[in-house]
């Protein structure tokens, strides 16, 4: 069945997962305060266990997918030494290139059961780059073009499918490819404006509103 109410918006399912996550996080901390950290970690493992029981390697349903977000939460707890600081030593010992190779395997349909651990392998890869600052991989990751692409990637993801379903993506195969350079230019201009002007404004506003007074 179609996932979109409006044609070209089916990719918004991931944004819905994020909104559900933010609302849940706010509610958990409102009710349980610091204990919410423990709930999130346990919840992450339970979701993965549920995927294993149901034999789900890949899915977009929130109850099968949110462990990929919660794995990032666990990494943030490790990085900020919120009771999981002992894992920092483990991340320092991980070779980022091995973690990258493992992520490729965990992201491939033929990866089999390794797919269950994709969220944690991705978190280990990111964490290993945080603690192995002398790794040659960081030299490539810190390249200006990659840093820029990482900055606008969210906007690119949101805007691209919308543009493809307009004049920029219409016509037969030849016409579509002739329009492709125009599509890329418009896409990157809109993504740049969205990231560094629209999104930045709201992010800074939220920071000012939530900043604790000394």
Notable characteristics:
mainly alpha, 214 residues, 0% strand
Task: Write structural notes for this entry.
The chain is about 70% helix and about 0% strand. The model has no long low-confidence stretch (mean pLDDT about 90). By secondary structure, the chain is mainly alpha-helical. The longest helix has about 40 residues, at about 175-210. It contains ten helices and no strands. The radius of gyration is 20 Å and the shape is globular.
User: What summary fits the major beta sheet?
Assistant: none
Average predicted local confidence, pLDDT: 90
The 3D shape can be described as globular
For the termini, the CA-CA separation is 52 Å
Please provide the count of β strands. Answer: 0
| Low-confidence residue ranges | none
- Rg calc: 20 Å
Looking at the chains present, what oligomeric state does this protein adopt? single chain
Helical/strand content category:
mainly alpha
Instruction: List SSEs in N-to-C order.
Output: HHHHHHHHHH
The helicity comes to: over 70%
Number of helices: 10
Beta-strand percentage?
Answer: under 5%
Summarize the structure.
With 214 residues, the protein is an all-alpha fold. It is 71% helix and 0% strand. The longest helix has 38 residues, at 173-210.
Q: How is the topology of this model organized?
A:
Elements: H1 13-32, H2 36-54, H3 62-65, H4 67-79, H5 87-93, H6 96-106, H7 118-131, H8 136-141, H9 144-164, H10 173-210
Helix pairs in contact: 2-4, 4-7, 5-7, 6-7, 9-10
